[in-house]
Amino acid sequence: MPAPSSSPTTLAAPPPEAAPPLRAGGNGLGPVALVVSAGVSVQFGAALAVMIMPRAGAAGVVTLRLAAAALVLLLLCRPKVRGYTRADWGTVIVFGVTMAGMNGLFYQAVDRIPLGPAVTLEVLGPLALSVFASRRLVNLLWAALALGGVVLLSGHGGGGLGFGSLDPLGAAFALGAGVMWAAYIVFSARTGRRFPQADGLALAMAVAAVLSLPLGVFEAGSDLLVPSTLALGLGVAVLSSVLPYTLEMLALRRLPAPTFAILMSLEPAIAATAGFLVLNQALSALDALAIALVIAASMGAVRSQMRKRRTP
User: What's phi and psi for 186, nearest 5 deg?
Assistant: First the structure.
């Protein structure tokens, strides 16, 4: 099922020169494939997390996910801690704070409202980022089309459950997660430029894990140490953190933040599919129409960006 200035809520886009040119053909579509793969991974991981939430609670699942992901990334990347400036460390720490906030708020949301509407509300953060950061009218049009699909899906996804019947606190948590997701997009891009490979991601994940640990231990206690829960938590960590965050950081090295943010509109569609396959949530004809709208908006945004990069 996940986001990246000096504060976690800053939504300013990185400088235009940060993203190398997109080329026509396979090289241009490479970052898009990374984003789509990340979305599939994170949403199926979120569906798995919903299944184990009765065992460890929302905060416990977040702790398992972030701690296991941090351990895997630190072992794989073995990042060095010397040779970085204060600004580098400031960026990676704020990136870790955004990840902890995004995950904590999102799982509090799905503990109260269904997965589809939760992701639908959360994705409004990246959509807002694409509107605020974009300097081209066509991107605003694609964002509006994506928003239309998101709203349609929210009203009829998950068995016909609309915004009006959602728990208000759960909806508020989902919107807060959306703000943190927008910040995650900004700081993921900045961290990827400052640190080699996935070193910055590994360090930021460790920061997020440390921040989430007290709440998880307080809520779940010794239940976090049950072998079956640990194994499922590791699965959630790989699907929802290790794979998607790594793929997204690689994509953000080549995609501008506004285009990446519009691609995030695919997440509700992927979540609806994951809900259907894993959580037995039905898909209606209106769900299919909503999914078609967000896919069309994402494809249009990518094609517009590729034309812009090809123009001398």
Answer: -65, -50
Q: How far is CA 90 from CA 117, 160, 203, in A?
A: 34, 44, 12
Reading the block at residue 247, the tokens are: 């793929």
How far, in Å, CA of 2 to CA of 65, rounded?
12
Cβ neighbours of 81 (radius 10 Å): 8
For the record, the structure tokens of 145 come out as 């089309």
Strands of 85-217 (E only): list them: none
| CA distances from residue 115 to 7, 16, 181 in whole angstroms, order as listed | 28, 34, 16
Contact 270, 39 (CB under 8 A): yes
Q: What is the rounded CA–CA span in Å between residue 90 and residue 108? A: 27
Claim: this prediction has a pTM higher than 0.85:
no
Asked if residues 82 and 312 have their Cβ atoms less than 8 Å apart, the reply is no
CA-based diameter of the chain, in Å?
61
Alpha helix positions (H), 221-265: 227-237, 243-252, 257-263
Using one digit for the tens of pLDDT, what is the confidence trace for 10-55?
333 333 333 343 333 344 458 888 888 888 888 788 778 877 888 8
Measured CA to CA, the distance from residue 180 to residue 264 in angstroms comes to 13
